[in-house]
Amino acid sequence: MNILGEAWSTLADVLNPHGPAVNAAKSYSPSDFSVHFFLQLAVIILTCRVVGWLGQRLLKQPQVVGEMIAGVVLGPSLLGLFFPDLQNAIFPKETRNILYVGAQLGVGLYMFMVGLTLRLDHFRSKAKSAATVSAAGIIAPFLLAILITPMLIGVPGLFTPGISQANATLFMGACIALTAFPMLARIINENGLANSALGTLSLTAGAFDDAASWCVLAIVLATFGAGPGVAIVAIGGGLLYVAFMLLFGRRLLAPLGRAVERRGEMSTQILAITLMLFCFSAFLMDAIGIHAIFGGFLMGACMPRGRFVEELKQKVEPVAVVLLLPMFFTYSGLNTRMDMVNSVGLLLVALGILAVSILAKFGACYAAARLTGEDNRTALGIGALMNSRGLMELIIINIGLQKGIIGPTLFSMLVLMAIVTTVMATPLFEAVYGRKARQTGELDPRDARLATA
Fold first, then answer.
1. Helix 228-244 and helix 2-12, axial crossing angle in degrees, nearest 10
2. Sign (positive/negative) of CA torsion 160, 161, 164, 168?
3. R_g of the chain, CA atoms, integer Å
4. For residue 421, what are the contacts with CB-CB under 8 A and spacing of at least 6?
5. What is the pLDDT of residues 11-39, one digit of tens each?
6. Residue 179: which residues within 8 A CB-CB, separation 6 or more?
7. Mapping DSSP to helix (H, G, I), strand (E, B) and coil, where does residue 23 land?
8. In the predicted model, what is the mean pLDDT of residues 194-209?
9. How far apart are CA 353 and CA 350, in angstroms?
């Protein structure tokens, strides 16, 4: 009964303040925030475009990987290291809260657009494979976390003193099991996989893995003083909302599609209703403790198809991708320090975590895909995509650092793991699947040219 009472209290507390702002300065006026915000946007867009272009030309990486690196470039790891006064003048700590909100809007809206392109027919045809790959991508990381966590706890500075082995294991398992859902979606889109069975299978399995990781994180946070109500609201509320959307969502949203078909275009009224529904869905998933991006993705997946999707993507996608999404990468980069792994021993620990993480995701997902009947090349492609972790990893480890679960040193090691596994995803995928698939016509080569345009 007390647990249910705490769950209700957690739900009722959604709109109340949840801690102080990040070093909020009372001397900042609204115009001060405005001045900094527009300057930050200009610097972010310029840096993301330049670094993304260099990544495409020099490293053959998709634009999205360049944007992730650009976020780290603008943070304390590079700009703040060599030009700390300039970095602090452009991104003062007092403005981080506003940048955070823009970041959540950008990534949530982009995942809404990704949901619009989800091929449910491919998902139904690959449901068994997606479930098996997802299960392998969750079980293997937690098994390996059980093996390595006792050794990590023995290294000073990695975990907060006094943390239980169970909580440390759960957190490490969640970090290793994570797949970079937004990053994976961009890589799939930019490599011409959006309408392929392989892309849909990987994206669906990645979504399940991320949702499971966030639920585990909610359980860990509940034992750190947040109370069991946090875990109950997160897991129970998430399952109820997903079930409602899958059972009734498409039927309830169908009139929007019919209105666009009758008119031949999307009116501003239909656009306003659609964006309102996206915002409510993102709010709901964020409020219960999962993440706004899952609300956006789920709402997009249940939206009408056909002309509705074409009109909505034309009106919204360019602004989401070019203007809003880069804020997400930059905000995470501002919280990232790459100078914490500063000894040979710590470097070996970091390399060990990296090796275990690759084995747990690439190896396990490859094996699961093979067991469900996928050919060797397709299974390797799935493993390469699922191994990407990106900035979803940065989000979860930032929470772990802020809540006192891990120390700055382990945080830096996990940042290194996130960057390496993400950067290796595209070249590895091209080597084991993409190049051959375009030669044989399985993938449209035009998609690859568009990705580098």
1. 70
2. positive
3. 21
4. 354, 357, 358, 361, 387, 388, 389
5. 666 556 555 555 554 567 777 788 889 99
6. 137, 205, 206, 209, 210, 361, 386, 387, 388, 389, 392
7. coil
8. 76
9. 5
